[in-house]
Design a protein that fits this description.
This protein is of the alpha/beta class and 228 residues long. It is built from seven helices and ten strands. Helices cover 32% and strands 24% of the residues. α2 runs parallel beside α7. It binds glycinamide ribonucleotide (GAR).
């Protein structure tokens, strides 16, 4: 009687030993981030979106993240004198969440080689074109202008080359003769919301193998969406 029993604190990683941390970087709308958050929960991935980090305080996606109770952080690039200083602060903000996966989701900053190196193998991006075609900006307008009959989106491991790197998965959509840039962008975005969560699930499940600059699904699942 009167004895005090001290119980060891319950550690989250003991309760969920395989739980992986995903950190998502956004600059704006955040609809891909939202798709990842929703799919992670509804499919019960062995992972959680631990944080959403933005370089802009007014990124609309931050509102959704906060509503979901996800930690958010802002690292404003304008507050830093150099790319290196910004990337360094960004890396430290990301590291605070011990990420297994760092997903760029409409994160519109060019990253230094040192940053890319630090997160090598964990850093992925989605780009709204069939890479290696049309890296950079205005991808949909360029696809229409070139007379392409297909367009799509690519999820890839990030290298220090902008919008380049080993391709994890791609989705294709038709380009229709009446397409405007906005119409094509909307058709591609719908596929992005399926493609990006799928690619990240593969990553947290350890279902991907990098071999000779290529990425293969170990279970031979199709890495192409939208084909008939
Ligand atoms: C998405 O279409 C994404 O593929 C693109 O920005 C959009 C972000 O939308 N990313 C790039 O162009 C990267 N080069 P979201 O904020 O609603 O996810």
């Amino acid at each position: 009687k009167g004895a005090i029993v001290v119980l060891p604190p319950k550690r989250a990683d003991t309760l969920r030993p395989r739980m992986k941390n995903i950190v998502v970087l956004i600059s704006g709308r955040g609809s891909n981030m939202e798709a990842i958050v929703r799919r992670c929960a509804s499919e019960g991935w062995p992972a959680r979106v631990a944080a959403v980090i933005s370089n802009r305080a007014d990124a609309a996606g931050l509102v959704f993240a906060r509503e979901q109770g996800i930690a958010t952080a802002i690292v404003d690039h304008r507050a830093f004198a150099s790319r290196e200083a910004f990337d360094d602060a960004l890396a430290r903000a990301i590291d605070a969440f011990a990420p297994n996966v760092v997903a760029l989701a409409g994160f519109m900053r060019i990253l230094t080689a040192a940053f890319v190196q630090r997160f090598d193998g964990r850093l992925v991006n989605i780009h709204p074109s069939l890479l290696p075609l049309f890296p950079g900006l205005h991808t949909h307008a360029r696809a229409i202008e070139a007379g392409c009959k297909v367009a799509g989106a690519t999820v890839h491991f990030v290298t220090s080359d902008l919008d380049h790197g080993p391709i994890i998965a791609q989705a294709i959509v038709p380009v229709l003769s009446a397409d405007t840039e906005a119409a094509l962008a909307a058709r591609v975005l719908e596929q992005e919301h399926v493609l990006y969560p799928l690619a990240i699930r593969w990553l947290v499940e350890g279902a991907l193998e990098r071999r000779d600059g290529r990425v293969l699904h170990v279970g031979n699942e199709s890495q192409l969406l939208g084909s008939r």
